[in-house]
Specification:
The chain folds into 2 domains: 101 residues, Ubiquitin-like (UB roll) (Roll); 124 residues, Fumarate Reductase Iron-sulfur Protein, Chain B, domain 2 (Orthogonal Bundle). 35% of the residues lie in helices and 15% in strands. The chain has 9 helices and 7 strands. A 5-stranded mixed sheet has the order 2-1-5-3-4. Helix 6 crosses helix 9 and helix 7 packs across helix 9. The longest helix is centred in the last third of the chain and has 18 residues. The protein binds iron/sulfur cluster (SF4) (2 copies) and FE2/S2 (inorganic) cluster. One iron/sulfur cluster (SF4) binds next to helix 4 and helix 6. It comes from Cohnella pontilimi.
């Protein structure tokens, strides 16, 4: 089979030169066997335009830095094979996050802010004893925590979320998932009312409209639908008790 000629339509915009309006630039590239978007974008940058900005670190779906809109859908570019895409490929930066240029966005500041807002650390009155034996936890709870802690902070669930796109302070599925991780951890001594102060609002779980784009788009399959339902249920009870 002859290799395909791919046409990339890539958003170009530099926030440092705001007078220059955003444009879609077209690049042609011959497809190669096993080509990922990581390979394609690097080829375009090396051979056609060294000023093209995008982010990749691990190239293996681990670091979460290469989330972008690929033909309108938020996902990881390093794990996307061109053979799974049509000949025409449009690439846009993830919305919601601060644009650094072209396909590169700053997800780090957003996630740091969510970590601070949700106080994403174990809250306990116990004094840390460095020499004490590690506390035991039942296997099922440990596995549940492990499951939701796999989030790589790629931002795909945020970029595809209708609420996050119109409400800048909405914590999104990744933020709710973060809260849920501490709710199920028996070492965290926060009660439901304390969690309600964190997530029981329209910028928290009650801003979610439940259409599950987050769950559809999470590239590593975190069960976001279940996490959202779990936190919503807990917060509805806490709100009712208030
Ligand atoms: S279900 Fe909620 S968090 Fe998920 S995409 Fe929809 S509004 Fe956003
Ligand atoms: S929950 Fe999934 S989609 Fe959202 S940031 Fe984490 S890994 Fe990415
Ligand atoms: S480069 Fe690390 S997830 Fe894609």
């Amino acid at each position: 089979m002859n290799p395909r000629q791919l046409t990339f339509h890539i958003l170009r915009y530099n926030p440092d030169t705001p007078k220059q309006a955003p444009t879609m630039q077209t690049f042609e590239l011959q497809e190669e066997m096993g080509m990922t978007l990581f390979i394609a974008l690097n080829k375009i940058r090396e051979e056609q335009d060294p000023s093209l900005k995008f982010d990749f670190v691990c190239r293996a779906g681990i670091c979460g830095s290469c989330g972008m809109l690929i033909n309108g859908r938020p996902t990881l570019a390093c794990r996307t094979l061109t053979k799974d895409l049509p000949r025409d490929i449009s690439l846009m930066p993830l919305p919601v996050f601060k644009l650094l240029g072209d396909l590169s966005v700053d997800t780090g500041t957003w996630f740091r802010d969510v970590s601070l807002r949700t106080e994403a650390w174990i809250h306990t009155e116990k004094v840390f004893e460095p020499k004490a034996q590690e506390e035991r936890m039942d296997n099922e709870t440990a596995l549940n925590i492990y499951e939701v802690e796999r989030c790589i902070e790629c931002g795909c669930c945020i970029g595809g979320c209708a609420t996050a796109n119109i409400k800048p302070d909405f914590i999104g599925a990744a933020g709710v998932n973060r809260v849920s991780r501490f709710m199920i951890d028996p070492r965290d001594e926060r009660d439901e009312q304390q969690y309600f102060d964190v997530v029981g609002s329209e910028d928290g779980i009650f801003g979610c409209i439940g259409l599950m784009a987050c769950d559809d788009n999470c590239p590593i399959g975190i069960p976001l639908q279940g996490q959202l339902a779990y936190v919503r249920r807990k917060m509805a009870v806490a709100g009712w008790k208030r």
